[in-house]
Specification:
8 helices, three-stranded parallel beta sheet, Rossmann fold, mainly alpha, DNA polymerase, domain 1
Length: 209
């Protein structure tokens, strides 16, 4: 969801920084990369081990971050280029659409409803529902199961390296759509195709994959 469907990925750092500062947690923005790809509850558990603080529990801090990121996303976020057109294209060709994300369930449902695209998905799966987050393939496999599709029949659209790894580990085709800053990351070579925008994905390319 974050960074592929919605332009919310950069806002996570803002919310995490604000809440960390509020609780005087000794983690810096430069150290956020230590937890890239982890679920928010795993992030705050990591903080509690490496940058302990007094007062609120890791769970409570995670919930505060979620409250902040949801509000901030509604205020400053938006739908990424090409998303609506692609959803229309998939609908026109009778393709099942699932959303598999590391974002927490309550954030997912709140933002999908806010941006008016909740009804476009046949299945919505958060990593909350599985034991392991990306790069483990569990969230993609869970989503495919709920769609009634075999993994090898699925195509994953991802903006992150961890997501691309998870998709390939699930034995699915992967189209990477990295942001401009990470577009040339050689690790995206694991993907079957790399695009600069969802606007570049047409039905011919989809069917060829």
């Amino acid at each position: 969801m974050d960074g592929l469907l919605l332009d919310t990925e950069p806002l996570w750092g803002v919310s995490m920084n604000r809440v960390a500062d509020k609780h005087r947690i000794g983690v810096t923005r430069e150290r956020f990369k230590e937890t890239t790809g982890l679920r928010i509850y795993e992030v705050t558990e990591h903080w509690s081990r490496h940058y302990p603080w007094e007062g609120s529990t890791p769970q409570e801090v995670a919930e505060e971050i979620l409250d902040d990121i949801i509000a901030l996303s509604k205020e400053q976020g938006g739908i990424m280029r090409g998303v609506v057109q692609l959803l229309d294209l998939l609908d026109e060709h009778g393709m099942k659409i699932g959303l598999a994300t590391s974002s927490p369930t309550r954030m997912v449902h709140s933002l999908l409803a806010h941006f008016g695209i909740a009804h476009r998905f046949h299945c919505v799966t958060s990593a909350d529902a599985v034991q392991y987050g990306k790069p483990h393939p569990a969230v993609f496999l869970h989503c495919a199961q709920n769609l009634g599709s075999a993994p090898h029949e699925c195509l994953v659209l991802e903006d992150s390296v961890n997501g691309a790894i998870a998709g390939k580990a699930a034995r699915m085709k992967v189209v990477a759509v990295p942001d401009e800053l990470h577009f040339d990351d050689p690790r995206f070579s694991i993907a079957d195709l790399k695009l600069s925008s969802l606007e570049d994905l047409d039905i011919v390319t989809l069917l060829s994959l």
